[in-house]
Task: structure prediction
Amino acid sequence: MAAEIGVTREIVILRKKGCHLCEAVEDQVRSIIAIETSLTVVDIEEDSMLRDMYWLRIPVVRVEGQDVFEAKMMDLNGEWKERLAHLLK
Result:
């Protein structure tokens, strides 16, 4: 999923306030995204449909409209950071 030069990629993080896993993923995404990236953070508690769909899956990272990363992909050893960086390249 390589980004083309000059093309803005859209990344959305689905999360909720007070979620430490969500905060860790958002911090990691912010540390690795390129300048040509649009980042939107969505609080699922503000939309009942999103809350119902994603409550047990957050944090979820969506790239160009596709969910590419979610909580079940995280691990205690921090290997999720490398996997997430690979998905965002």
